[in-house]
């Protein structure tokens, strides 16, 4: 996306008559609003208010106060609008990237691909312990190319169906899938928002993320190995089903793989922004949907005995898949990124950067930031750090990417996969059963051990230095 392209954002700010408002009412107001809206968003599970609502309102209030102040002080705030628009440009590309990714996933879901995966796992008659590892490994691998949020929901659904008579298995397997999705998503820019930001800002090249492979595997395997002994050895009993894939499902998988391959290769070899490849893939998916719909109607016309079913065969509408994206998450990131941009403009991020990366060790600071992602969205934190412009080496960027990516696994409120699996369990399990905040907290020491083990592994792989 070239997040704030080539950091024109920083250059544009220099052109704006910028005041130090950290100790002004506007600054205090912005900080107060930020704390309030984040508190409301983080406790979404308690009051059932969508996390996007307070974030969007908070961003509007903060930027509104800045525009009003500059208009009163200088008679115009047109230059401030440049800063706002640069932040908006950064969000626009993230918006499109997530929209395209989730459209592909919704398309594969509509064609029955993931339901077929569930049936295959059930028909193999694995034990609960085997399923614990299979679902964990699948979550780890899938999150390399699919957002960890979606992987968490997918694996949570499969685990619920498989373990409907074993709530303890559902809880442990759900927790394992959350940790695995966060760890796997940290290896790839396509697996998480924070890694996507780092990639698009060219802080790390695509191939450099592979340096995190072993540390992320350690982060997943350490707590999983400890939880393994708490999972029952019994086998679930199911009647065998036959997977039923809709027409075109395999070709949609091929288009999905082609799109992500094209996106990566065009970025690595031609420096093409990731969104260009993603939009090209979306265009192909739209034309394929058109082909499926028209060819289906044609077959009904040519085969008389199928004409009576034509009304029930509506083909494949890709725009319904686009409409099914997670708009709550998209709007949440709008509010979060605009708030971070405002705090940066007001000078708070520069002051924080001076303390974190000058007063204390950058290594310690990056670990602290990673630990804080246990309760604050890692995408927002990474966007904030990028706005601080820290003079990091590649090793420090790897450390920050690792700690922010896996730090969200420490608490159930620390990552999107965990929050969505929590919501999924509430609708299908009795209160206190399955994957819960309390269960996650009980296993937090094991996850924390994996967190520090992954940092130690990265330290050793880098020759004992960061």
UniProtKB/TrEMBL annotation:
Membrane topology summary: Multi-pass membrane protein
Keywords from the named record: Antiport, Ion transport, Membrane, Sodium, Sodium transport, Transmembrane, Transmembrane helix, Transport
Membrane-spanning ranges: 25-42, 54-70, 90-109, 130-160, 252-269, 275-293, 330-349, 364-386, 398-423, 443-461
Alphabetized GO MF terms: antiporter activity
Cellular component, GO, one term: membrane
Occurrences of domain Citrate transporter-like (ranges): 66-405
Protein name in the entry: Sodium:proton antiporter NhaD
